């Protein structure tokens, strides 16, 4: 029977997208693949190939709910671990790879207890809570952002963040610099949207000079509760805008954009640097470990992106930066080239090699 890989991931698209890339690659090499996640993580698994079996486990996070919900978290996780141990004992996987998120805890714990070869992949420049828990209990720690802050005694491997096949298909896609013709701005707040982008970006674009604004086409990802007001603002301002809660065709939209305004989640940075697009990055201020600032550092240092902290993310400042990029054809082109210099389009290949090495 073909070798079996169990992928443990969940929480957000930031964990699930690189997990999906690994799943696609391992299936292509003849492996069987199962994804262990919870009900919330399963919502982000729609892009996984049909051949991947989804194993829903019980899990929970301390970040949501009231006191009673938080008290129930350990019990749900313990129940998830018990179920994962039984399935892992039955399935006998060759390798388990964790991508972080609380839904990864049951499968990773089961793998550790049953001595199944396992490793983790950390997408951000700072280890997440769950990966911190397992960093000293796994055979390898693959890093998507380099350098990554690691616990003492843990050695990381500079792998990069795997991107989905749809992103690789547009790797290094030709960039059309801004000019006096239709230009596209892609606005994303991560897989769950971002209210601050919905508050600031539309009026910032509306404040652009008339001769520039008339050429702007916007694709804006907004939370469900913000969609109506964002779409109305763009329409009232005479700006052509497509406002949706989630884009299933991000690689296409990104490759067609002259500028991307976004959070600096690890998967978003990976997509930007593989496709090669100028960006204005707004790291999530609420991130406990400030990992999104760490994620953005390489693009900013390379001259591929402008970073605006949330504390300084205001309409006049954003308008000025958008105008600066879209009025400078050579500068925008250089930013796109600089973005490509930061990319690791072979990240999936590197990660596959680590998995196969563990399975020997």
What does this structure look like?
There is one protein chain. The protein has 360 residues and is an alpha/beta fold. The protein contains 15 helices and 13 strands.
| Parts with pLDDT < 50 across at least 5 consecutive residues | 66-72
Overall average pLDDT = 92
Structural class assignment = alpha/beta
Written as H for each helix and E for each strand, in order along the chain, the element string is EHEHEHEHEHEEHEHHEHEHEHEHEHHH
Q: How is the largest sheet built, in terms of strand order? A: 3-2-1-4-5-6-7
Enumerate how many helices there are, as a single number.
Answer: 15
Percent of residues in helices comes to 40-55%
How large a portion of the residues is in β-strands, by DSSP E? 15-25%
For the CA atoms, what is the radius of gyration?
21 Å
> Main β-sheet: number of strands, strand sense, barrel status?
7 strands, parallel
Based on Cα principal axes, name the global outline. elongated
Cα distance, first to last residue? 15 Å
Number of DSSP strand runs: 13
Short description, anyone?
By secondary structure, the chain is of the alpha/beta class. Helix content is 44%, strand content 16%. The longest helix has 25 residues, at 67-91.
């Amino acid at each position: 029977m073909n070798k079996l890989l169990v992928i443990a991931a969940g929480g957000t698209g930031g964990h699930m997208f690189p997990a999906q890339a690994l799943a696609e690659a391992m299936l292509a090499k003849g492996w069987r693949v199962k994804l262990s996640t919870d009900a919330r993580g399963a919502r982000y698994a729609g892009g996984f190939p049909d051949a991947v079996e989804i194993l829903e486990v019980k899990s929970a996070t301390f970040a949501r709910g009231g006191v009673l919900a938080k008290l129930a978290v350990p019990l749900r996780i313990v129940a998830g671990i018990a179920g994962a141990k039984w399935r892992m004992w039955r399935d006998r996987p060759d390798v388990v790879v964790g991508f972080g998120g609380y839904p990864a805890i049951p499968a990773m714990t089961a793998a550790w207890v049953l001595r199944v070869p396992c490793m983790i992949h950390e997408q951000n420049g700072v280890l997440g809570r769950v990966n911190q828990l397992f960093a000293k209990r796994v055979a390898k720690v693959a890093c998507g952002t380099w350098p990554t802050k690691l616990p003492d005694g843990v050695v990381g491997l500079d792998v990069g963040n795997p991107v989905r096949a749809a992103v690789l298909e547009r790797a290094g896609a030709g960039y059309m610099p801004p000019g006096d013709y239709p230009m596209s701005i892609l606005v994303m707040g991560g897989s769950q949207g971002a209210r601050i982008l919905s508050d600031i970006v539309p009026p910032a674009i509306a404040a652009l000079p008339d001769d520039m604004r008339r050429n702007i086409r916007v694709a804006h990802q907004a939370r469900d509760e913000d969609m109506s007001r964002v779409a109305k603002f763009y329409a009232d301002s005479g700006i052509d805008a497509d406002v949706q809660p989630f884009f299933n065709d991000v690689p296409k939209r990104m490759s067609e954009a002259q500028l991307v305004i976004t959070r600096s989640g690890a998967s978003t940075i990976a997509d930007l640097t593989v496709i090669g697009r100028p960006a204005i990055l707004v790291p999530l201020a609420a991130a406990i470990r400030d990992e999104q600032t760490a994620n953005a550092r390489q693009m900013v240092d390379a001259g591929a992106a402008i970073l605006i902290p949330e504390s300084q993310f205001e309409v006049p400042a954003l308008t000025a930066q958008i105008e600066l990029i879209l009025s400078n054809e050579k500068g925008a082109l250089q930013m796109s080239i600089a973005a490509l210099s930061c990319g690791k389009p072979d990240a999936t290949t590197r990660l596959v090699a680590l998995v196969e090495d563990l399975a020997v």
